[in-house]
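Weekly modeling sync, notes
Attendees: S.R. (lead), two postdocs, one rotation student

Agenda item 3: backlog of single-chain predictions. S.R. asked that every request posted to the team notebook include the full sequence so nobody has to chase files. The rotation student volunteered to paste the first one in as an example of the format we agreed on. Action items at the bottom.

Example entry:
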Amino acid sequence: MSALDDRLTELGIAIPSVAAPAGAYVSAIITGNLVFTAGQLPFVAGALPATGKVGAAVSAEQAKELAALCVLNGLAAAKGVLGSLDRITRVIKVVGFVASDPSFTGQPGVINGASELLGQIFGEAGAHARSAVGVAVLPLDSPVEVELILEFA
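Predicted structure, as returned to the notebook:
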């Protein structure tokens, strides 16, 4: 077992299977020493646990939890192309999209769910640049979508 596997076990986290792409793209791709993941929805066992706009049908706190699920799916995609998450040396950037009710302005707090989980998993190497963007709608009426840029050795 690796140090990262030990850390995930300690946190009670299991990396899921790679989610099948919902279109004509791949889940993750390598260029140089970077992995770029496709936007990841918060699938759990192939289904979205919630749908709708944040600030209306979905609470900010629930959306924050969904953003963390997106990260787990992103890590699964990265593991699929890297073979092992132990190869990740740094989280470079997180881009988060929040399907927002027009009056909702708490997108950064929602995407903190992704950022905080990456910090718990990777420690200092999990500190990253980030964007948190409110949008009108996301695929399958998902409340959140997250993509990752990861450095590896």
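Discussion: group reviewed the output briefly. DSSP finds three helices and five strands in the chain.
Action items: rotation student to repeat for the remaining queue; S.R. to check formatting next week.
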